[in-house]
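Lab meeting notes turned into a lecture example. A postdoc, R.K., suggested we walk through two folding results consecutively so the class can see how the record format repeats. The first protein's sequence and structure tokens come next.
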Amino acid sequence: MSFSMASLIEKLNARDKDERYMAMHDLSADLDRDTIKLENELERRVVSIILKHLEDTSTDVKQQAVRTIASLARKVQEPQLEEIADKLATHIINKTDEERRDIGSIGLKTLVGVVNQQTAPAVLKRVTPKLQIGIQGETEVAHYCLEILNDLLKNFGMLMQRELPALQTSILPMLASPIAATRKRVSICVASLAICAPDQLFANLVSTIFVSMGEAKSPDEIRTFIQTIAGISRSVGHRLGRELKRIIPLLIELCESPKHQEDVEMLENCLQAFESFVLRCPKEIGSHLDKIVNISLKFIKYDPNYADDEDDGDDMEEDEQEEDEFSDDGDYSGDDDNSWKVRSAAVKCLAAVIRTRPEMLKELYEAVLPQLIIRFREREEIVKMEIFSALKDLLRQTQGRTANPDAMDEDHPSGNDSHHLPNTVVSMLDVDKLVKAITKQMKDKSFKTKERCLELLRELILVLNGGLNNYLVNLVPDIAKAIEKSAKTSLKVEALTFLCLLLEKHPGADFSKHVKDLGPSVLASVADSNYKISAVALRVCGRFTTAKHGGKRLLQGEDQFIQNMYTSAFGRLNSQDQDLEVKEAAILTMGEIIATLGDIVGPSNLNGCLPVLLERLRNETTRVTSLKAIATVAKSDLQIDISIICKDVILECSTFLRKNDRALKQAALMTLNSLIASYGKMIGDSLYETVMKELTILVSDAELHLTHLALQLCSCMVSKSPNENVNLIHSYILPRVLVLLQSPLLQGIARNSLRSLFANLVQAGSGSKYKELLGQLLGIVDGGNQLSRQSLSSIAQCVSSLCGAVADSERIATLQGFMNTLGNPSGAEQMKQLLLHCVGEIGREFDLSQFSLENVIMNSFTSTSEDTKAAASYALGSIAMGAISKYLPYILTQIESQAEYRYLLLQSLRQLITLKASDGGIGKGHDSLAGHMSTVMNLLMDQCDSDDEGVRSMVAECLGKLALIAPTEVLPKLKELITRDSVETRATAVHSLKFTITDNAPVQELATCITDFLLLLKDDHIMVRRAVLTTLNSATHNKPALIRPLLKTDWLLPSLYGESVYKQDLVRTVNLGPFQHKVDDGAELRKLALAAMDTLLDKCAEQLDTSAFLHHLQDRLSDELDDIKQAAYQMLCKLAVREPFFVREVLDTLADPLKTVLNKKTKENASPQDVERHNELQRSAMITVATLNKMHDSNTCHKFVSMYESILQDAKLKALLESVSNDTEGSTSVAMEF
């Protein structure tokens, strides 16, 4: 290889320029190879020859030599790198030869782009001094030097700390240069210098610019200083924030000064600076936002050369009366008019506020929305597009939010405020005015304007969840025009998409009179060659098909349109050569047409279409979509005759159940269920057996949702054809079911489907299979398997389903047998546990008061097995549900008299109250709680100060569940309990509220009293504060609407943050013989406080002061407990993803605690558990580092960058960083890694 390289060097000395060019090209290719390593002498020769040819007489050779520098720089050692840099820098400052300056500039930019942090010092050493000389030289030289200097500062500014003061001193005066190009380059360079400048130098930089701007006389200088400040804000807004209180008043003064009202460039620069401050300085800009919004609203209509006399109609009378302070009655000429730049900058500034300040939604609706609507009259299309975009942002911010999230909507007692908007928002939205303004713009000649209008309407529908019924007459003609054959493709797609959404979100609207206007163009679009248009048009046909009005099909008496629509859809369905999106849309639309209009389409068309659907089902790319379409047809009320494909479809579905594709199996099971439910009578035994065989493998705990669908299908088959399927179930499915019941994972809908299957089996077999099935279920325990409580509960529920499906005599006999077994002292404990669960499950549904079950259960309380005691407690509470009048008084009496079993009896009472709460409330009659409420409450209140913490916990749960049943009766008594002197009583009362604030919580009643409970966060006793924190977390998670109003108070968040702080007075020392052990009583409080903060971050982020939240979170990164550090890491990752601007402000302060954890070593004698905990903590810290590093502009924070580079230089830490980066994708996924 050395010989080859030497040969190329010889050729580079050839007289023929083509030979020199080819030799340089080959040399570059050789240097790019990873296997090439240059010896010292050869390295020097290569560098020398390439630098020589930078001055070659041939331009092509020179250009190739410059390109070769990138390859060369990666191979050579530091001395040669210095030589290259020195030569290129010398070329740049050449005052006479412009071609050399060009070559030097290109070469040096190339060099800067390929060197790394390790090799960069060699380049900086040679280049920086010459650049400092160059920027003071001639204009052209200075421009070259400033461009290179900017690249160096951006890439290696942290390595140039010594040179920064001198560089700053050199370039700042150049901001006053009379040459605009120089000022622009210096401004960019200053912004890059601000990234790496130390704090003191940065402060000096900003102060110098600020003073200079105040002293500047020339408008050009002032504009340059404003541009520079905006550039610094975009680069390091988090550092500039503290200076805003000086900068913004000056900029506002410039905007309001009469002498600058016609200086378009200055006004534009000021508004661009405001936009940058809003985006990059979120914390400090808050107090200035009102002024910025007002300034932007003023200049959004800035047009001094144009008198706006446009009549906006009756709906804008107010707008006509408003005088435009910038209007001029003189003649207008569009030549050289650039006032639109000011309006554009003003709109962008407003858009920045809209996107970043959701908490200002109400104020934005009141002040900004009307002005944006008025400015629809904007004559410059660029500005008009930005106005539409800003309004679109405003509507998007409204989705999923409320302008007044603290309000309790009377119509929504659940308090679930994320799915509806209060009337205040709708009224502020002024739908009528907005739609009329949009409708007027739809007449505009510009297709871009029409597209933006349709986008706005689409966002409006999503915000209102419909709401445009009254405007259909005005909207439909414009939509029809937008989907005409001559319309632009993008406009047609947008119009069809909007029409599809319009039909979807207005299910009861009368579109029948609009079908004639829209139908022909929609059908023509179906046949369009553009796949996007065709696919959306097909979806519109589907919406037309399923739409109803007045409870009837929309397409009534539209036989010809229906036939044409069928023909168009079938043409797309039957075509092979088309995009997948079109194929899928055609399949789904055809399924809807057959299911809804099959009686009109006619048998002949169906017989031609159904085989095509079957063919699509057999195609791998369209089979899932085809399954959905066939399921739609099967569920049709028209009972469509699909006999020609029914058998084949079922066979195909059966084969799909073997595939390793979850979505396919799920769709196949759902389709089979629909087919058998509708056409079960026409399916033969062999087909049922084929399906049953394939279902066998799906009945397992590996995928419970598929298990649920499989069992649901089995139940359907038994219901539709019991004679054929009962025996098949016993042969194929039941063995798998008996194994499944032993799994502790079985729960939810899968277990419910299993219960339904057992009930159907008994009913289908007329009870003949009852004893056999019962024996098989009980036999699971007889087999000697040690089962979990969850498994025993699942078996018991299936037994209950069996008993519920047979005659009373059978059930009574079964229960009598259970009692005999339970009364046998020598019986197996696990069988007793199962039978107790069985008795409880049966007792939930039937009155078992005729049996003396209480004696059997009380005897079970004496068992040595804790599982038996728990099963007995569960059984007693459950049978009380079916016979309250007998068993509730018994439970209450035993609680008072049997102190030994009080905890178990309270569990029984809890079970009863829980069942009653889920059953719908207190009830009436002899089997209700109404007559016992006073007794129950008094008993529970007496137990609130029990010495047994387990009893108190159970009492709290009982009280909380009772409050769900009778809130007006229970909550006042709980409120009275929190005023008592007993610490235990107060803690129990507060803790009980946790069990009240669930999905079905009485929000209105809780809203009146929750403040009193949460104020106990100031209680003197740890036990009470711990209960309050638990309740606060639960309330925030389940009903955030209850907490949001309290976040604005001056006590809740400060108290919460206070509990997250490490407190030395809560640490005590315990003597353990010769050793002393420190016990941190505040550790649990800190964990609970951080958990509550985490939930607030998830549920109420808009109401939090992110800066204050982050300040308290920072301190927890240095907590003594690893659990607390990990909780802090998790929240920090969330904030880094959601609020990166705030996190970037404190990024440097986060570096030290993270570095401490990452560099910490375990002791040599550490246990495996300690090592594992240490590794887990380090991994969490590294995930946090990776997330923070992915934030925009994280490289502008010096300490963090230094820490990150130290990680890369440590082999072990670098491997850990690569591991967490490979295991996660994107910032959000990294945050969720926890």
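The second example is placed directly after the first for contrast:
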Amino acid sequence: SQQQQEDEEMLVPHQELSTADAAQPMEVVAQTEPTNTAESQAPEDPQTSRFTWTIENFTRVSGKKHYSDVFVVGGFKWRVLIFPKGNNVDHLSMYLDVADSGNLPYGWSRYAQFSLAIVNQIHQKYTARKDTQHQFNARESDWGFTSFMPLSELYDPSRGYLVNDTVVVEAEVAVRKMIDYWTYDSKKETGYVGLKNQGATCYMNSLLQTLYHIPYFRKAVYHMPTTENDMPSGSIPLALQSLFYKLQYSDNSVATKELTKSFGWDTYDSFMQHDVQELNRVLCEKLEDKMKGTVVEGTIEQLFEGHHINYIECINVDYKSNRKESFYGRTYTLNCVCILCAISIYYLMVTYAGLADLQLDVKGCRDVYASFDKYVEVERLEGDNKYQAEQHGLQDARKGVLFLDFPPVLQLQLKRFEYDYMRDTMVKINDRYEFPLQLDLDKDDGKYLTPDADRSIRNLYTLHSVLVHSGGVHGGHYYAFIRPTLSDQWYKFDDERVTKEDTKKALEEQYGGEEELPQVNPGFNNTPFKFTKYSNAYMLVYIRESDKEKIMCNVDEKDIAEHLRIRLKKEQEEKEHKKKEKAEAHLYTIIKVARDEDLKEQIGKNIYFDLVDHEKVRNFRIQKQLPFNSFKEEVAKEYGIPVQSQRFWLWAKRQNHTYRPNRPLAPHEEAQSVGQLREVSNKAHNAELKLFLEVELGLDLRPIRPPEKSKEDILLFFKLYNPEKEELRFVGRLFVKALGKPSDILTKLNEMAGFSPNEEIELYEEIKFEPNVMCEHIDKKLSFRSSQLEDGDIISFQKPSIPGGDTQVRYKDVPSFLEYVHNRQVVHFRCLEKPKEEEFCLELSKLHTYDDVVERVARQLGLDDPSKVRLTSHNCYSQQPKPQPIRYRGVEHLLDMLVHYNQTSDILYYEVLDIPLPELQCLKTLKVAFHHATKDEVVIHSIRLSKNSTISDVITDLKTKVELSNPDTELRLLEVFYHKIYKIFPPHEKIENINDQYWTLRAEEIPEEEKNLTAQDRLIHVYHFMKDPNQNQ
């Protein structure tokens, strides 16, 4: 065994050992050979085993370290290693060792949970035991405890560990299969599924899992009335029903997007992250409201609502004041990601702490019972703090809280987060805090209950869930340990993953407190280093024993509305179908077939450039080994086109990024399999084959065999443009001879367009459209080859425009129309003050200048002066306006206003100014809060001055707008953040760089006593706390 591994100690909580009377260590006596016994739970190759090692003549063991015999667990060889005199510490050191580590193959590893114990041979209950878990490998082939127990206790014969110079060591080893999280199946391993994390929504997932695993609550949710016309994203009841159904019947982790959408939280809100308190509030309020007037009305109150009495009792007179309040176990905790500063979190907590909810102190309390003791602790109101009793004046009194009743489901909020007044920040309380598996709130003759409480109800609770926060005040992760059936088996619900866990993991390891860090160089430091555990419970859910049968009821499909079952089963079937398709995708090729009908349907409506959108044509899912000729038979059945009348063309992507039919399939290619053909035609190696189906019609309009195509034949596609209607449409395709001329087909084109045979028309070739439109006039006298036309090319034609004609047209020819289409942009405008509400849309061009855009907006708003319009761009990621507006002529074109990093938006925000924007940009506007010296009022003033102005200019301007206590009073300007003064501005400071968006600017009169400060005088910052947190100063 390597020395470094021998020295290491596992991270386990420190255990207090029971002590007896102290005595001197015994004298060292002789050693004999140790004896070994092993008790296995399974006779062959056990996965879990207990090994007992009896070491006689212990004090005579020579050598620094001592090994047990080898024992086998899970097919692996193990042994116990001890250091009888300590591994460079004054404690017994003990480890579990892989016995044959030197002979194992390269890269070996095994995972084990184990406990090591020194048996107390006098009182078994005082046995010293520590347990841990480890992934053993070549570098760490032994693992255990350097400071297992003090040598002074081990060698003290009165303690019971060393009896007749014999020590008994026990090792319990459970070899676990290492979880491969890439292939781990929660449903298969545990019977439960997890919830997907949308991005910092683990706090929500842990709460939802807890609520779901309260069957009575789940049943009530299922019984809430919803209809088949409801949409989950717009109905919290339906979204929750859908979520619970999927948790109950799905095989994979479940998404929560529909539920958060039903809250009104969009994707960005999910990333910003709400907190558990807000989620619980939204959920409970909405559910309570939706349950009214239904069979499940009052379920929330019945399950979670309890009552306590706030009382004040006078000592010397007969007067008592009682106030009954209800409480819910709702959650008040911090965000999973640091998105609020500590002060604002404190504000949230103080604001909601005023609600009647049961929160237990952690700081200064050993366990839940100590917290309840503190909760009902009697406060004496005396001296300066006497109570004003009606008709009796100021009186000495006792003030306190007692419980009238507890709810069936008791949610206890542990106050793991507190505001530290000394440090002016939020802190997390990681102190050790114990909670029992069974909680008896009737203890000590019901000391937590009022005299009027119903004593026939037995308030004995069993632990159902432990919600955990792992991390610090500014970040971390949430997960939950739950006993879904209240059996001994716990489960950890950590977002998508659900794992089985033991009771110790769910309870003791979530108490918080300290752990010992492994010692790397124990010879240099005899004291094990302890560190704080940052994973601990912040919420506990208990279920009353007397209500257990009712709450842990059976919930099955008959509890779910039929329309919901049908809807969700259909969703599940579609999901399974897609999953199957995905799994079998490598066996199939998707063939996308475009026809003349698709071109007629799409050109001029969905598309203008190229010929077709392949995402909107008929798809065929064909097995790769199927001969292509067999596929043609399927096409014949689909479209009624005989196989001999079908000719398929391959599409090709050209260098100019256009996509055109390139060549027809040869007979030998059609004889290949679909898979072979796809590989030949597709260099990108995706699973698609794109084809154009050419079908020629006879005089009777029935399909005929396509004519032979020679090298001289060119297939061209034709679009017709109507300038008056601004309409472009597909009118057909023709084969032309390469040496032929456009003039040869003019009559045919007029026929296709519905024009007279001799109508004069202009022809243009559509060449490309990215990044710019290229569309060139075709000389009708040149041959098609001379014009460099080839298979798949597109010709758009129109009647020639007539200069000075009667009809005014915006785009007189094909190139100008295509340029317009390429650059047109519909922009959705919103008022900056109402950034979620769309007010109007304008069709603009991406090439419009800044002046063009504001002129169109001004015209829409009925403004005479466009320079009073100020625009702000849209942030595509936050779905909010950008913080800084667009400067006057600060961008060249509309496109520059819409691009945000690599994304293009179609939203702009506008505001109407009282002065032109160029003039405003030369000024600095500051919002200043003026606090009157004698009146309890604050007035916000907007000060608009030249950017070169100073603080002195601001104060001068402000004096003209405010009421002063004295005309000669001096003012000062302060920089404040959350009521804390950070700076007093000197009068000469320039205002240009002051940020009043982040800081609050406070103006106030300078008190007379501060004007004549001496060197001995000091100004002290004071924080005034009010009942209403909004008024804190």
